[in-house]
Amino acid sequence: MEKIIVRGGNKLRGSVKVEGAKNAVLPVIAASILAEEGTSTIHEVPALADVYTMKEVLKNLNAEVSYENGQFVVDATKELKTEAPFEYVRKMRASFLVMGPLLARIGKARIALPGGCAIGSRPIDQHLKGFEAMGASVEIGNGFIEASIDGRLQGAKIYLDFPSVGATENIMMAAVLAEGTTILENVAEEPEIVCLANYLNAMGAKVRGAGTGVIRIEGVDKITAADHTVIPDRIEAGTFMVAAAITQGDVIVEGAVAEHLRPLIAKMEEMGVGITEVSNGLRIVGPEKLKAVDLKTMPHPGFPTDMQAQMMALLLQAEGTSVITETVFENRFMHVEEFRRMNSNIKIEGRSAIITGPNNLQGAEVASTDLRAGAALVIAGLVSEGITRVTELKHIDRGYVDLAGKLFALGADVERIQQVEENVEEAAASLETAASLSLNTSTN
Ligand SMILES: CC(=O)N[C@H]1[C@@H](OP(=O)(O)OP(=O)(O)OC[C@H]2O[C@@H](n3ccc(=O)[nH]c3=O)[C@H](O)[C@@H]2O)O[C@H](CO)[C@@H](O)[C@@H]1O
Ligand SMILES: C=C(OP(=O)(O)O)C(=O)O
Question: What's the catalysed reaction (predicted)?
Answer without folding.
Answer: phosphoenolpyruvate + UDP-N-acetyl-alpha-D-glucosamine = UDP-N-acetyl-3-O-(1-carboxyvinyl)-alpha-D-glucosamine + phosphate
